[in-house]
TrEMBL record, chain A:
Lineage: Bacteria, Bacillati, Actinomycetota, Actinomycetes, Micrococcales
Name of protein: ABC transporter ATP-binding protein
CDD domains, per database record: ABC_Carb_Monos_I, ABC_Carb_Monos_II
Entry annotated with the keyword Membrane: yes
GO molecular function: ATP binding; ATP hydrolysis activity
InterPro entries attached to this UniProt entry: AAA+_ATPase, ABC_carbohydrate_import_ATPase, ABC_transporter-like_ATP-bd, ABC_transporter-like_CS, P-loop_NTPase
PANTHER family: CARBOHYDRATE TRANSPORT ATP-BINDING PROTEIN MG119-RELATED, GUANOSINE IMPORT ATP-BINDING PROTEIN NUPO
ABC transporter domain segment(s): 3-239, 255-499
GO terms under cellular component: plasma membrane
Organism: Labedella populi
Keywords carried by this UniProt record: ATP-binding, Cell membrane, Membrane, Nucleotide-binding, Repeat, Translocase, Transport
Listed Pfam families: ABC_tran
Top-rank lineage group of the source organism: Bacteria
Topology of the protein relative to the lipid bilayer: Peripheral membrane protein
Subcellular location per the Swiss-Prot or TrEMBL entry: Cell membrane
From TrEMBL, chain B:
Any one cellular-component term (Gene Ontology): plasma membrane
Top-rank taxon, per record: Bacteria
Protein name: ABC transporter permease
Major subcellular site: membrane
Organism this protein belongs to: Labedella populi
Lineage: Bacteria, Bacillati, Actinomycetota, Actinomycetes, Micrococcales
Annotated localization: Cell membrane
GO molecular function: transmembrane transporter activity
PANTHER family xrefs: GUANOSINE ABC TRANSPORTER PERMEASE PROTEIN NUPQ (PTHR43370:SF1), SUGAR ABC TRANSPORTER INTEGRAL MEMBRANE PROTEIN-RELATED (PTHR43370)
Membrane topology, record value: Multi-pass membrane protein
Keyword 4Fe-4S: no
């Protein structure tokens, strides 16, 4: 089925998320929609899927104008979507999820689960998925959950399939498998829209590429275009793709983690017997697919996890068992992975956010009251130093772009006397300019002789920053390998295979 | 630094290791009860024998009375309770040798056995020298539980679809009031029943409109609705119903309708099958809600909306209408519970006659973990506690009546806090769905 979008415009208040976008996707082609975070790709697809109503423009399928009031209409017309955040109900089984919304019923209105099971097996066999229709979705690994999403779309006979940032949660191997599935679907005549910001994937699988920037189509490119050309088109200027850094000069071991376990409220060991050290002046990257214990590991070091066994010490001082305040006082800087949830108070101003961790003592507080003039001076200074782009220091943090929010968090965490910096997903969802800035500051921190831990699910980021790489899988460290380890080895380690020869 | 690394084929274990989080809640609670048992049954032990009457004179099959000597029974029960506590302590400290599943089974069985033994000991002690009508005790339990069960079913439906229903109390009270008024005026209890359902739905409309359409905090709307209904019915009671009690507040009650054969079974026959239409409706409602929730399209969609509304939306389910109509349905079910007060137990409406039953029903929803069948058993437990207080009051127990009045509420708090602990409800319950 041929999909055509003509002059789609979608505004949210003063912001124009999509500005007269035209797009044609031919049957049997993989069409990549490339753009930075916030360029308007997801908004466009939500318009296509009937979740948003376009302010202007029209959607055509095989030349006929469509009108979608909701996702139900879009699905009936043959549009399926594999969402970035899976639209699956975790407590339901695979079969229940697949049948939801177009249930078959047998005698007396009872759900016909057998029919749904059969449908799941049919599609699962066709693509070699091996998905158990009776498994509870919440118990499945994310890679399998994504396959359930694909089955769900295909069970409604989708002829146009949209993949919204599908690789964010996958290991490199799973990504390769997904690409193979996409090619198989294409060869069967399905039109595929593949939304991403990862250049490598685009070049590998796309038949055609459309680049979007700030809500506008800025150009088309052939899959043969070079990485730097695509990046320049996507960002609007030449981009430095590699992080400039000198060889690390590691000092003595500083952070020592020994046999650390973290037990979650259900009694599961989400971090299992993890030991590693980080030296002064080196960056240790913790790689791994989202949800393999990285979050809990960093939170355990910070004192944010209630059930922890083992020992963490920094420069000889034991951190385990200390309150978060004491850990901060020991000189630990922490950039949490979800900045809007854990990093900032969105309603508070930039200045207030900058002093959140020091609201209890000098120099921001004297005799129980805030010293506002001192705070203002401090905030102005940091705003300049960290290039925070905002109208003023009294702008609420929630109004900033992702990149500028992250700079506020960094500014706060890096303006204490640090003896350790932990940055979890420091560049997730921020623009390329801010990514460059954040990476530069990480390397500078390292060069100042401070141990740095960077947790990242993006292999590109891990490879760009790390002096050593620890790969986590299912709560354990699979291995700690040098920063120049080839990507395919890292990929296999992210899927749980141990390197047979581990070099320090 | 550049050693070549090749992955070998030994994958790290795929499942996460599981460690049981040791909870001392159960052993401590049991130990406290053992102390109570020692004090009551042994130290303050009473002489005389306790008679458990298993049949009433009107029963077809007569069972012999069960006579227990109070003091020896009390001592035996206390020893058994202490043994069970030792088992549970052992399970907590050294249970690692058993699988998690086996451990849970043993723990559950121990707690159930403990509860029954303690109850037996307590009844024997409290009624020493007198007789306990067992059928009467259980019959009263069903009567007192009926409105709680209807309320809890309403709560389960509403919360499963994603709207916290604190307004059960208001729905019960509105149902009771309208049932009394309409049945009195028309002289027909069936019309009263329908009026009660409509009253429950009207309360639900307000809850649904404010929480779904205007995004007001659902708990606050619920609380305000309860106060509103209480004020409104009390006002109308004094200004309208009391003016002409004979015409406006003398409702015809549903007659008892014994089911042939079934009602002749000893003990459970008179308890379960010599009831009124409303109670039979309740049995049907429990089964219907259970099957509906877990085996039909209606239930699948309802639960989807309560768990992950956005996912439901993306497969074409209209989230807010689904919520609106199911909250209304929940109101109708709770309204039936209200009708029970004025068309079954007594035949007239009284100010605040539900007296917090809606909140106990809410506790039953949580204690029953949002499952209609478990919530029904929870409601029965609370009903039993209430009736125990009535029965012991009637036969003259040594416990002060003020203390016995606390019993149902103490049971509720202990049950919800101690036994449930952290229960996971429908993920999106209480959160309005805002389409961006």
């Amino acid at each position: 089925m041929q999909l055509e979008l003509r002059g789609i415009t979608k505004r949210f208040g003063a912001l124009t998320a999509n500005d007269h976008i035209d797009l044609v996707v031919a049957p049997g082609e993989i069409h990549c929609l490339l753009g930075e975070n916030g360029a308007g790709k997801s908004t466009l697809m939500n318009v296509l899927y009937g979740l948003y109503q376009a302010d202007e423009g029209e959607i055509l399928l095989d030349g006929a104008v469509q009108h979608f009031d909701g996702p139900g209409d879009a699905m009936r017309s043959g549009i399926g979507m594999v969402h970035q955040h899976f639209m699956l109900i975790p407590v339901f089984t695979v079969a229940e999820n697949v049948m939801l919304g177009h249930e078959q019923t047998s005698f007396g209105g009872r759900l016909d689960l057998d029919a749904a099971r059969k449908r799941v097996r049919e599609i699962s066999d066709r693509f070699g998925f091996s998905v158990d229709p009776d498994a509870i979705v919440g118990d499945l690994p994310v890679g399998v959950q994504q396959r359930v999403e694909i089955i769900k779309a295909l069970s409604r006979d989708a002829r146009v399939l949209v993949f919204d940032e599908p690789t964010a949660v996958l290991t490199p191997q799973e990504t390769d498998e997904l690409m193979a599935i996409m090619r198989q679907l294409r060869d069967e005549g399905t039109s595929i829209v593949f939304i991403t910001h990862k250049l490598r994937e685009v070049r590998e699988v796309a038949d055609r590429i459309t680049v979007i920037r700030l809500g506008k189509v800025v150009g088309e490119a052939a899959p043969t275009a070079s990485n730097s050309d695509l990046a320049a088109l996507m960002v609007g200027r030449a981009v430095e793709l590699v992080v400039q850094k000198q060889q690390a000069r590691p000092g003595p071991a500083s952070l020592v983690v020994e046999n650390l376990d973290v037990i979650d409220p259900n009694g599961l060991k989400v971090v299992n017997d993890v030991s590693f050290t980080v030296h002064e002046g080196e960056i240790l990257a913790i790689a791994g697919v989202q949800g393999n214990g990285q979050t809990e590991l960093t939170e355990a070091i910070m004192g944010l996890q209630p059930r922890v066994n083992g020992r963490v010490s920094l420069g000889g001082q034991v951190l385990t068992g200390l309150s978060v305040r004491r850990v901060l006082d020991a000189g630990v800087g922490f950039v949490p992975e979800d900045r809007t949830e854990d990093g900032l108070v969105a309603e508070m101003t930039i200045a207030e956010n900058l002093m959140l961790d020091r609201s209890h003592s000098e120099p921001f507080v004297a005799r129980g009251s805030l010293r506002l003039e001192h705070l203002d001076g401090f905030a102005e200074e940091k705003k300049k130093e960290f290039d925070i782009r905002a109208q003023s220091i009294s702008t609420p943090a929630g109004r900033l772009s992702g990149g500028n929010q992250q700079k506020v968090v960094l500014a706060r965490e890096m303006s204490r006397d640090l003896r350790l910096l932990i940055a979890a997903q420091p560049t997730r969802g921020i623009d390329v300019g801010s990514i460059e800035f954040v990476h530069k500051r990480m390397v500078e921190t390292r060069d100042a002789g401070i141990p740095v831990i960077v947790v990242s699910t993006e292999l590109d980021e891990v490879v760009a920053l790390a002096d050593r790489i620890a790969v986590m899988y299912r709560g354990s460290i699979v291995g700690i390998v040098p920063g120049d380890t080839p990507r395919d080895v890292l990929g296999l380690m992210m899927a749980g295979e141990r390197p047979s020869e581990v070099a320090a | 630094m550049s050693a070549t690394i090749t992955p070998d084929a030994t994958p790290v274990s795929v499942t996460l290791e599981s460690t049981e989080i040791r909870s001392w809640k159960a052993p401590i609670a049991l130990a406290v009860f053992v102390v109570v048992a020692v004090v009551l049954f042994v130290v303050l032990g009473r002489d005389g024998a306790t008679t458990f009457r298993l049949s009433s004179d009107s029963d077809v099959v007569q069972l012999a009375d069960w006579v227990l000597p109070a003091r020896p029974t009390g001592i035996t029960v206390t020893v058994l309770l202490a043994l069970l506590t030792v088992v549970v302590v052992a399970l907590t400290t050294m249970g690692n040798r058993l699988s998690a599943r086996a451990r849970r089974m043993v723990l559950a069985a121990s707690i159930v056995a403990f509860t029954f033994l303690f109850l037996l000991g307590f009844l024997t002690w409290a009624a020493a020298g007198a007789a306990i009508p067992v059928t009467g005790l259980l019959l009263g339990t069903v009567s007192l539980s009926a409105p709680l069960i209807f309320g809890a079913l309403g709560g389960v439906i509403s919360e499963r679809v994603g709207v916290v229903n604190v307004a059960i109390e208001g729905q019960l009270l509105a149902g009771a009031f309208c049932a009394a008024l309409v049945a009195s005026v028309t002289g027909n209890p069936f019309v009263g029943l329908v009026a009660a359902m409509i009253a429950g739905v009207l309360v639900s409309f307000v809850l649904a409109a404010f929480s779904i359409k205007y995004l007001v905090d659902q708990v606050i709307v619920g609380v305000v609705l309860n106060v509103l209904v209480l004020g409104l019915t009390s006002f109308l009671y004094s200004t309208v119903l009391s003016v002409d009690t004979a015409a406006l507040n003398t409702a015809p009650r549903f007659p008892r309708f014994p089911i042939p054969v079934l009602s002749d079974i000893p003990v459970i026959g008179p308890v379960l099958f010599r009831q009124t239409l409303i109670v039979y409706l309740m049995y049907i409602a429990v089964v219907a809600v259970y099957i509906g929730l877990f085996h039909t399209k209606w239930g699948l969609r309802l639960r989807a909306v309560g768990e992950h509304p956005q996912a439901a939306d993306t497969v074409g389910i209209r989230v807010n209408p689904t919520r609106f109509w199911n909250v209304s349905l929940a109101g109708a079910v709770a309204g039936l519970g209200g009708a029970y007060f004025t068309l079954d137990s007594v035949s007239s409406f009284g100010k605040d006659m539900t007296a917090g039953a809606g909140f106990i029903a809410l506790a039953a929803v949580i204690f029953g973990r949002w499952n209609p069948v478990r919530a029904t058993f929870a409601a029965l437990l609370f009903g039993f506690a209430t009736n125990l207080q009535n029965v012991l009051g009637a036969i003259g127990s040594p416990v002060p009546s003020e203390f016995m009045l606390m019993l149902p509420y103490v049971v509720t708090v202990l049950a919800v806090a101690g036994l449930v602990g952290y229960a996971r409800g429908p993920a999106a319950s209480g959160k309005p769905y805002i389409k961006s």
